[in-house]
Amino acid sequence: MPWDQLAEKPDRRRLRGGMLPWLIVPLVAGLALMAYLSPLGPAPSRAAAAPINAVATVGMVGDVVAEIGGACVNVTTLMGPGIDPHTYRASARDLRAMQGADIIFYAGLTLEGQLADVLDRLAARRPTVAVSEAAVPPARLMEANDDRFGMDPHVWMDVSLWALIADVVRDTLAQLAPECEAQLDQRAAAYKLQLAALHQWVKESIASLPAHRRVLVTAHDAFFYYGRAYGLEVHGIQGISTDAEAGLADIRATADLVIQRQVPAIFVESSVNPRNIEAVQAAVRARGGAVEIGGELYSDALGQPGTWRGTYIGMLVHNTATIVEALGGQVPPLPAALADWAARWQVPLPVAAPGEDG
Ligand code: ZN
Question: Quick one: 81 and 216 in the same domain?
């Protein structure tokens, strides 16, 4: 909702605590009520004052905060393209940004491995929210296949789960800026509609692959939620975190799988060194097989800011289109619910006409 409309809405707090409620009560008609209140002036708007100063650790979190916050929030994201959150250490600049923030959003569930201690210490002095932990019911989390980690943190790979953080972000921002509540409600609702359409589109896209081709081999174990939600068997060379080296045995086992299952393509990740995937490709070739590098996926970091791949929606669209194309399927046009997103970011993919969404 635009700010001018927001300012015209009657302020509930003022109505409740107003000086002359007995005068107001008979004026049931909304227009008369607003005309009466207007001489008092509109509630101070956050856009006119300072926006909420929010810090997010990873792009997947920062983008959702920016989408829902709109003009009510300024978002600083600590980790840019190609940055691996599992091994990331905070710089002096990051610490200053976090110390000066009104609110710090992070994913949680051990994603920000090295940053966890810093975030714990900051939590005593600044509001911090681990969005995955706050939003996703434990029953819908997946256990990590590594004893050092409780739950797999790569929750954003299932769009229906990441959509759950929208309400947490909205509620948190509304507490900090109650005057923004109507706008935050509207923006969160609109964003959730986009994510619901995206979830369906990813599902249909993966379903275009022949059943025997639904095998996804990537650099590390970031895609289990994606596989569970959309029907792919997933294999990462490295485990849930990238902080341990993959051994020769991991490379050999992955090459065996590629040969046995006749996997046509495997994938590098933008935030992980490509050498392990390249080693698998070399091992397959050494045995007379062939496998392509199907492209680069965004697992734990978004693409370049200011481009469509630098948005959370773009991350899922890019990954899905890359996987489906390399494994022999075909993505349908983007849903009409994403037409505004596609136009805003000049996405070079067809979009369905309104009413054509399946
Ligand atoms: Zn990861």
Answer: no
User: Ligand 1: distance of its center to the CA of 47 in Å?
Assistant: 36
Nearest one of 318, 280, 276 to 296, comparing CA atoms: 318
What is 317-353 written as a DSSP string?
HHHHHHHHHHHT--PPPBPGGGHHHHHHTT--S-BPP
Please give the distance, rounded to the nearest whole angstrom, from the Cα atom of residue 74 to the centre of ligand 1: 26
Residues with CB under 5 A from ligand 1 (ion): 222, 300
Residue 184 belongs to domain spanning: 11-198
**Is residue 187 one of the residues assigned to a domain?**
yes
Domain for residue 118, yes or no?
yes
Count of domains observed in the chain: 2
| Phi and psi, residue 294, nearest 5° | -80, -5
Residues 83 and 21 in one domain: yes
Ligand 1 centroid vs 225 CA: distance in angstroms? 12
Is the same domain home to 246 and 315?
yes
| Non-local CB neighbours of 222 within 8 Å, separated by 6+ positions | 154, 157, 236, 269, 299, 300
Q: Is residue 262 part of a domain?
A: yes
Query: How many A from CA of 62 to the centre of ligand 1?
Result: 17
Question: Could you read off the pLDDT tens digit of each residue along the chain, which spans 358 residues?
Answer: 333 333 333 332 222 223 333 333 333 333 333 333 333 334 444 545 689 999 999 999 999 999 999 999 999 999 999 999 999 999 999 999 999 999 999 999 999 998 988 998 998 899 999 999 999 999 999 998 777 778 999 999 999 999 999 999 999 999 999 999 999 999 999 999 999 999 999 999 999 999 999 999 999 999 999 999 999 999 999 887 777 777 888 999 999 999 999 999 999 999 999 999 999 999 999 999 999 999 999 999 999 999 999 999 999 999 999 999 999 999 999 999 999 999 999 999 999 998 776 5
Residue 56's SS3 state is: strand
Q: Is residue 270 located within the same domain as residue 320?
A: yes
